[in-house]
Design a protein that fits this description.
Radius of gyration: 11 Å
Strand content: 15-25%
Distance between the termini: 19 Å
Largest sheet: 2 strands, parallel
Structural class: alpha+beta
Order of helices and strands: EHEH
Strand order of the largest sheet: 1-2
Number of helices: 2
Number of strands: 2
Length: 56
């Protein structure tokens, strides 16, 4: 299952991404550092549709 993890580049979120990936899911980390802003919605639709080019 593909899962978008908002805050996935932070201390806790990166661990969540690691655990989900280890359990066979496709966890995709997103945050303001990857261009996603939940307050404004900036890049949210694109983030949910595609995998970001940067790695964790």
């Amino acid at each position: 299952m593909k899962i978008a993890v908002i805050g996935g580049t932070g201390l806790i979120g990166s661990r969540v991404v690691e655990i989900l990936n280890a359990r066979g899911h496709e966890a995709v980390p997103h945050s303001t550092s990857t261009g996603v802003d939940l307050l404004t919605g900036k890049s949210l639709a694109e983030a949910l549709a595609t995998r970001p080019s940067s790695s964790t």
